[in-house]
Amino acid sequence: MIVTVVALASAVAVTAFLSFGRFARSESWRATVTPLASIIGSGFLICGPILAREFGQAAILAEAVLLAIAYAAGAVIRFNIVHVESYLERATLHDPVAWLARITQAVLAIAYAISVAYYLKLLAEFLLKPISIGPASHSLVSNALVTLILFGIVALAFGSGLRRVEHLAHGTVSLKIGIIAGMLAGLACWWLTNTASDPLPPAKIGWNSIPLLLGLVITVQGFETSRYLGQSYSQDLRIRTMRHAQWLASGIYLAFLALLTPFLGRAADAEGVAGILDIMTLVAPALGIFVLIGALASQLSAAVADSIGSGGLLSEVTQKKLSVRAAFALAAGLAVAVVWLTDPFEVVAISSRAFALYYAFQCVLAFMVARKTDVATPTRLAGFAIVGAICLVATLVGAPAEG
Fold first, then answer.
1. Residue 57 backbone zone (phi > 0: left; psi -120 to 50: alpha; other: beta)
2. Based on the structure, what is the number of domains in the chain?
3. Is-contact 108 277, C-beta < 8 A?
4. Cα separation values, 136 from 21, 129, 139, 230, Å
5. Which of 143, 207, 247, 384 to pair with 176, CA 20 to 30 A apart?
6. Dmax (CA) of the chain
7. What's the DSSP call for residue 221?
8. 30 falls in which pLDDT band (50, 70, 90)?
9. CATH number of the domain that 81 lies in?
10. DSSP class of 398
């Protein structure tokens, strides 16, 4: 009972602060919300069972490595916000850097469409988890549900305007972070009130672990949306808030995995991408409801945030010839195709590979502009090359976790 009370009180307090506090209305928080919504779209929920299954008690170490790769890729994006954006403003149409930038944007447009499918497919899995549906019809019902949600998002963008869609994303982020705070507080309370725990699964680290880890890049992706908010926020603000979003998301991931440690054995045996529901229900029945609400809010806000990023991206690619509303419809069509052609574990790996390719292109852009303008030290150039190589490996070998 005490676990439930602590979790509920923490969730209400944090949600209220982020919804109604003066800080929540600041420009800095608004600029942080979009990347943060994408980064913690689902990783804090699905990484626990997947990493426990694939890495055993080394799960938190694997998550730390994944977050370090993401932060390194974020550093490249932050460099590009200043230097590549400035270079492209004066570059000619046929400049090699301009050509590569357009190719990079096309890759990201595809990655965004896949990520929207990924977020909403997970949303459907969490929504259907408590419902008894036969294996034969589960996939059909899940895919049909996602398709309806995608059509609903597009209809909202066309009927009520994109601004209301963005407000939807902002509102769900506050709820989502509040629920995460409640889950963390509930787990911490369990630690303080219980001494018994299950045996930890043995650590599993080897060469086969690398493709599985790189296949989870999508779970820490989302910071790059700051790159395409230039019409709303300054370069300095985007750089600072992207860094803050990554710090906050990293703290959430590591705290959640650390507090989940006593349940890693059960997490390793959990079924499906929504297996965390079973684990949290064991801690306290009410926490299962927290997970369900948090999952629905996180997937929805992340999908909308990536759609917003997609709108800004496609507007930039077409020099504003394609409206943001049309971009919504195009991304939704691509997402529907991905939904019907993949299963939940496959879409995680495919999304990871798509974003890894985008980050690799960003590293090449950073390297080229740094060489042309002489704005980076040899050490920094080597860093671009190393991060780019890691992202290229992730593109080529990122593998889905076991179903």
1. alpha
2. 1
3. no
4. 48, 15, 7, 46
5. 143
6. 66
7. -
8. confident
9. 1.20.1740.10
10. -
